[in-house]
Amino acid sequence: MSNIIMYYTYNTDRLSLKILNTDAAEQVLEFYLENKELEAFEATRSEQFYTREYQRLALEYEFDQACAGRMFRFWIYEKCNKEKIIGTVSVRNILRAPYTKCEIGYKIHKDFRRRGYARESLAFVRDLVFDDVKLHRIEATTLIDNTASIKLLESLGFVREGYLHNYIEVAGAYRDHLLFAATMLLDTADL
Description:
By secondary structure, this protein is of the alpha+beta class. Helix content is 27%, strand content 36%. The protein has 4 helices and 8 strands, in the order E-E-H-H-E-E-E-H-E-H-E-E. The chain has helices at residues 25-34, 52-68, 117-131, 147-155, and strands at 8-11, 15-19, 72-78, 81-95, 101-108, 137-143, 159-170, 173-183. Strands 1-2-3-4-5-6-8-7 form an 8-stranded mixed sheet, sandwiched between helices. A hairpin with a 3-residue loop joins strand 1 and strand 2. The protein is globular.
């Protein structure tokens, strides 16, 4: 797969969302290095994560998974600047009938927050999952004190469904999370 140069690109009003191949490893690494503060909200990472080779392998894996329809990671760019990654939305753990569900995650570059980019990209991917991927349930988790993420999910129709005790290791300790979900009824003939 690493010899294939292929991008899946979707556009919103202000953004381009792309599934990238290994050629973008340096851009992805730059995004993560510039946003190490996100570790306060995410699963604990090893230092190896912050290498070009790790990101190249991750992009290769994610590209293969996207081609197989098992997961999608969209890297977000402003339409006016296609050289700098400003965020990502991932659709992972896709399960088909009888579950027809997935999990979604997202993050925005520290210098591009409070511009509505998370909302714009997440709303687009939510609709893509319902309309094109034909799933009926999208789950999202967030730390219990991440009020910005909670407000974003609720504004997009995600409903709080539960409290997950000691759910994910974040910054060396297992932390509690809230579970949110958005659902859409489908005609079972589409499955």
